[in-house]
Automatic annotation (TrEMBL):
Residues 198-458 form the Protein kinase domain. This is mitogen-activated protein kinase kinase. The keyword Nucleotide-binding applies. Residues 94-109 have a biased composition (Basic and acidic residues). Its EC number is 2.7.12.2. GO terms for molecular function: ATP binding; MAP kinase kinase activity. Residues 21-30, 41-56, 152-180 have a biased composition (Low complexity). SUPFAM superfamilies: Protein kinase-like (PK-like). ATP binds at K227.
Amino acid sequence: MLSVKPLGPRSKSAKNVPALSISLSTSESSDPLATATQGQSSEQTDSSNSSSILSSTCDTPLYLPTTAKPNPQRRPSKPGLGPLQINVGPVFRSGERTIRPEETISPERTRRRQQHGPAHLQFGERPPQFPSHSHVDPLDGLRDALKNLATSANNSTSSLTTTEGNTSTSNTSPGSGFSNQSGVPSHRITKEFTDELLEVLDPLGEGAGGAVHKVRDTRDGTVYALKTITTREVAVRQVVRELNIISTTSHINIVQCFGAYMSPSSSEVKIVMEYCEGGSLEAIGKKIKEAGAVVGERIAGRVAEGVLQGLAYLHSKRTIHRDIKPSNILLSREGIVKLCDFGVSGELVNSMVGTFTGTLIYMAPERVQGSEYTVRCDVWSTGISILELVQNKFPFPSDLPAIELIVVITKGDPPQLEDEPEAGVTWSDEMKDFIRQTLMRDPRERPTPREMLTHPWIQTVMSQEDHMARWIRQVWGWPKPPRKSTGRRNTEDRSTSRPSTADGRNQDGGNTDVTMGC
Ligand SMILES: Nc1ncnc2c1ncn2[C@@H]1O[C@H](COP(=O)(O)OP(=O)(O)OP(=O)(O)O)[C@@H](O)[C@H]1O
């Protein structure tokens, strides 16, 4: 994001100090999990995505190696008028041996530090995390993240059963971790993966972060989704962030990770995930549009509930997703919502040249403005995504240049859910209020995911039958699963006999979930 803030009147003594601070809001956080610091309220904030250029306030200054000795006579700079600092992280030099921070510290200094803490630094001495002349290999963090993933896999006791020719995996280990009502693996597995062991079947999607393929494990036929991230194109910290999140989360509404590995050349990281056969909400929306159909309230409500459950879980782990949008909301074959893509798509540099606008459309005003933001920004993105799904169009004009879109998002009235009488589409007041709540421009008035889960619309939808499995089957034209021989009609069969009008509206006014050509 580009935000331009006045820095106050230009001081006479600071001729070279620009009067404006230009902030580029990147999608990266210095903390891989975007977690709140200790002592902060449970609702975390994330202002770390703003890396300032031409600003003297950045916390990761660039220390250019210099041979000049510090001049003790030199007056310290006035606050706010410090030297030009550019937040580019540590300086790297290729071809040099990696020196770890601890190697740069003598035993005497280590002893002093243990005694007095890191504040006991001599003039010119640098805190250990910013060694001035050492060179940290950026891939080290990545290797650590991969190692952690492997360790957590090895500590797991789960087993994986294969459904030959099918796509689902199921965990047969009892009592392991998160509740496992729908056969979703609740822990990762004790398996190692390599390119040789995975047969690539089909491409599933491509984003700024890399390509995703459907693959089959040649050892047992299990089908997975394999995400390939090219470390040359994506910031390593972004990959580490995704690995850390995906490897430490276990929730039915979060895509499960089964492993990750690095290509021998270290140029690619591959993440092995559960395959979500229902595809993304983006793909589903396109399919529905092609069919000239409308998504009904109950389906929209179930999708919203799944997203909010995932977000509430992430929030409980002090994490903000930061990139909720239809292409990152997936559905399983059973119609279970799964959030994916924790790397945050595209750096601003990337984004400005194309993908940015796509992501920007879903961003909360406070995020667009580059101000501090919380988990409530994910709630805004959820509202925009649901609005897009049910209206089958972007809630904002999609052809606006980024800069105009920023103005619309930050200054215009938030979009609302409106009836379309000419198309015979009406929405319940509860649903309209739900959308209105998610799109409160002032984040302080916008509820958290957990609060949104108690909204009457969600409560109403959750008290009704779940038709997600049938709906996703209709969207993709999958055949009905064979009847169970229990002697009773299953819930899906019962629901088809529910009265609904030809345009998909049910008798109590709201749109039904079966508007996909039914
Ligand atoms: N586990 C999965 N199962 C099925 N399809 C998937 C899965 N993960 C990703 N996809 C498909 O691949 C697409 C891109 O995935 P993902 O969002 O993770 O990549 P990305 O490069 O990070 O994208 P973005 O540009 O949004 O950052 C998704 O929109 C979806 O269609």
